[in-house]
Amino acid sequence: MPAAKTKQDLMTVTVAEYKKLEKLVSDYPQQLRENPDSDGVSPKDILGHRAHWIELFLGWYRDGQAGQHVDFPAPGYKWNQLKAYNADLRKQQSDLDWGQTHAMIRTAHDTLLTFLDRLDDAELYAAPMRGGNNDWPTGRWAEAAGASHYRSAAKYLRARKREPVY
Question: What is the pLDDT of residues 108-120, one digit of tens each?
């Protein structure tokens, strides 16, 4: 459920959730970082995924503002194909290591904050995002791609730390 209704709220929740994630990531156990779970997903995959989805959001916004067709969630995929899309993304990012995906999420977060800083409350919350094909304002999309994704990534990483390592 989105928490933010203003730019200030959005910036606050985005920074707060990222700080929690960054604290967890910065001292994550070495032996778990690239160790896949039963679904074949590793903690480093989670970081790469979250960074990628921020890039997707920024692309959706850019394309919508330009009056172009927006491919949701990505070219060639429908929302009901997210499992396949995410599996394909993991294959594309398979050569990346923990350090690279950690750098990606930091860069994506910084890019997201820069983007949000350029917009005002009206641009974030007064109307649906152009090209979004629903009634979500830009701020809600940004929260879904940023703070909400950071929160779910942290939840996953904490759960993986509690699992026994074989």
Answer: 999 999 999 999 9
